[in-house]
Amino acid sequence: MRKIMDADPGSSNSSHATFRLDRTNRNVFIDKHNNVAIIPLWSQGENQGVLVTTPKKSTDALKATLMIQKLWLRFPEPKGGKEKQLLEECVASFKQFDFKRSYQIAQQVP
Question: Phi first, then psi: what are they for 25, rounded to 5°?
Fold first, then answer.
């Protein structure tokens, strides 16, 4: 049996059904029973992805995701060599599931 869940259980008629990175109370879905966490990722143009991880890793993953989103919004097309390099390293670490390292790199961007 499947159950459809509202991202914001306090809303009526599924008016807040989608999980969104820009909404604190709707930026991660955690199912401890099945040991899964799902995080909507930052948007790049028309592309939107999700990260499927474990509840244990979800806090670090969410922190890194939020930092990457902030950097993409701040530097949609990084002009400086250092900015671009750090952003690429940050995303590469994220894609290797090294969320703590990704967050640390993101903090270095001026």
Answer: -85, 5
pTM of the model: 0.77
The CA distance from 54 to 97, in Å, is 11
Taking only the tens place, the pLDDT of each residue in 56-77 is 999 999 999 999 988 888 887 7
Q: Which of 46, 47, 43, 60 minimizes the C-alpha distance to 97?
A: 60
Q: For the chain, which residues make up each domain, given as ranges?
A: 24-108
Tens digits of residue pLDDT in 25-40 = 788 889 999 999 999 8
pLDDT at 8 over 60: no
DSSP for the chain reads ------SSTTSSTTTT-S--TT-GGGS-EEETTTTEEEEEEEEETTEEEEEEE-HHHHHHHHHHHHHHHHHHHH-SS--SHHHHHHHHHHHHHHHTT-HHHHHHHHHH--
